[in-house]
Design brief:
alpha/beta; 9 helices; 10 strands; 35% helix; 24% strand; globular
């Protein structure tokens, strides 16, 4: 892979000819894109378009049928551990350790990732503050609201200070006050990290993202700057047009 002058990869996320088939069904079909360092990139598409499947492929959770993936210069097939170490992943409705507290679960995950005791304390303090978890820090996760559970998921994605964040509906279930906090956190993280953000909220795309990838029926149908889509009404219109919404709604 090409490198910048400082030796770092010129693209932090690379998907090349990515395919995932289930029998004859193509969940992801020949998807190719690159995301450079310090870019917040929206990953859009209607339900069932292949967004979550693509994200699972990028994180190594699923293996592609064809194609290749690299994260921060590490090939996901041949150097999966190194690639995975550089990813923070927040899946949609991701599983949590319900019997644990946020403090206990994050301590366990930090140990599993090999963080030293000092670094573990520092990172847990950081994510507790950034994700506003202090008031539920010692409360069982099973007793938490959907919004707090989502914030625990965000905390685990940030815990090991990854270079790349892959976030699938990170603001799902948050109240308006929580939305402001998480959006600001994503904006701040985008100054130093590469972020691929899946969302159905077009306002978030305008607020947070400089680039848009749009997938429909497993294929990438748009890759460009947010300015190419115009304002919010234009983004919605373009979204409908590129995903064939008008034609499908007539059948």
């Amino acid at each position: 892979m090409a490198k910048n002058s400082n030796g770092s990869p010129s693209a932090m996320i690379v998907a090349d000819g990515l395919c995932k088939f289930y029998g004859q069904f193509a969940a992801v079909n020949n998807v190719t894109f690159q995301v450079p360092a310090k870019q917040v990139c929206a990953f859009l598409g209607p339900n069932g378009a292949g967004k979550s499947t693509t994200m699972k492929l990028l994180t190594g959770y699923l293996a592609p049928t064809r194609g290749s993936i690299s994260i921060a210069g590490f090939d996901m097939e041949t150097d999966r551990i190194a690639a995975s170490e550089r990813i923070g992943y927040l899946p949609e409705n991701g599983p949590l350790y319900n019997e644990m507290t946020p403090s206990g679960a994050l301590a366990y995950l930090a140990r599993a990732r090999g963080l030293s005791a000092t670094l573990r304390r520092d990172r847990m303090d950081y994510v507790a503050s950034q994700c506003n978890l202090e008031e539920v820090w010692h409360k069982p996760i099973s007793k938490l609201s959907r919004g707090f559970r989502q914030r625990v998921g965000m905390a685990q994605a940030l815990l090991h200070d990854p270079a790349v964040l892959i976030l699938d509906e990170p603001t799902s279930g948050l109240d308006p006050n929580q939305l402001v906090g998480i959006r600001q956190l994503i904006r701040d993280l985008g100054k130093s990290k590469t972020i691929l953000l899946s969302t159905h909220v077009l306002q978030e795309v305008e607020i947070l993202c400089s680039r848009v990838l749009l997938i429909d029926q497993g294929r990438l149908v748009f890759d460009g700057a947010i300015e190419e889509l115009g304002g919010r009404d234009s983004i919605e219109t373009k979204f409908h047009h590129l995903t064939g919404f008008t034609a499908r709604s007539q059948h």
